[in-house]
Write a structure and sequence with these properties.
Blueprint (H helix, E strand, L loop, with lengths): L1 E3 L5 H12 L4 E5 L6 H5 L3 E4 L5 H8 L4 E4 L12 H17 L3 E5 L13 H10 L6 E6 L1 E2 L7 H7 L1 E4 L10 E2 L1 H12 L6 E7 L6 H12 L4 E4 L5 H7 L6 H12 L12 E2 L4 H14 L1
Helix pairs in contact: 1-7, 3-4, 4-5, 8-11
């Protein structure tokens, strides 16, 4: 039995689906029972647990071969990351109580970055789970290709993708969530000791120019990149409702300046096989369906 948190999202759902397809038993760990029906229909055991409730989580993680931890994302955290720290504390307590045979935790590229930024929340999770005395794998994927969802409307309606990743021709490590979920499922079924880190990126690195070209091919119209100036970021993010945009700004700085990167520029990273064009095709099709 494998307990999967974040199962209603793209990555967690792919982890569970891949395990089920390979004949494995899955326990769907959800906060909302109303979302359990689909997974129960697929034969999953269901456990209701909040990521800030160690007792509930420990019950969900008990008697399992492996647990997949997908920490909730907070893109506008309070200073000092108190929300993330609450989750980290409760998840750590739950794993120490339940003692599953092994743990795979979704982390991120940049969890080893030298400067504080939005991804520091994953750094803190890695630090805590490294001390629980269980076999733990931290899966560090690159930038999700699916983040391009936010660019679909402007690419379709204006022929423009406004990029915070810059310069436009700089290639970044990106990966499809499908590849992340499938690798996480495979890692859960492996046997290892201690703590290990597995890095993952897509088949090729992706620039903003590549993103515009993919949109142009799918949409059948010219699409150009418009670089969003660094000086405008804070005002833009605050106008969108963010209260503490600095961690997000520093994360973008880290990618653009190169201090958020795999240690060997991805030479040792596992390579996914989903191309950018497939992801953009699905995103555009999804926008038409809605």
């Amino acid at each position: 039995m494998y307990a999967i948190t974040g199962i209603t999202g793209k990555v967690g759902g792919e982890v569970a689906s891949h395990l089920i397809a390979n004949g494995q038993s899955v326990r769907a760990v959800l906060r909302d029972r109303a979302k359990a029906a689909d997974w129960a229909a697929k034969g999953c055991d269901v456990a209701i647990a909040d990521m800030e409730n160690a007792e509930q989580l420990a019950a969900a993680f008990s008697s399992t071969e492996g647990v997949f931890i997908l920490p909730p994302s907070d893109f506008d955290p309070e200073p000092g990351y108190p929300e993330a720290k609450r989750v980290i504390d409760q998840v750590t307590r739950a794993l120490m109580a339940a003692r599953p045979q092994r743990v795979v935790c979704l982390s991120t590229i940049g969890a080893d970055a030298p400067h504080d930024n939005l991804l520091t929340q994953r750094t803190l999770m890695e630090q805590s789970l490294s001390a629980i005395g269980l076999p733990v794998t931290f899966l560090r994927p690159g930038w999700f290709m699916e983040n391009a969802l936010w660019d679909v409307a402007s690419a379709r309606d204006e022929g423009v993708v406004r990029s915070f990743l810059q310069p436009a021709d700089k290639a970044f490590p990106m990966v499809a969530t499908k590849d992340v979920g499938r690798l996480a499922a495979d890692l859960l079924r492996q046997h290892w000791t201690g703590t290990r880190i597995v890095e993952l990126e897509g088949p090729v690195r992706v620039s903003a120019d590549d993103l515009a070209q993919a949109f142009a091919e799918v949409l059948g119209r010219p699409v150009r990149i418009e670089i969003v100036s660094r000086e405008s970021w804070e005002g833009l993010f605050r106008a969108q409702g963010m209260k503490n945009p600095q961690p997000r700004i520093r994360m973008l700085d880290g990618f653009n300046e190169g201090w958020i990167e795999f240690p060997d520029q991805g030479r040792s990273a596992v390579k996914g096989d989903t191309p950018l064009l497939d992801v953009i095709t699905a995103l555009v099709a999804g926008s038409r369906a809605t």
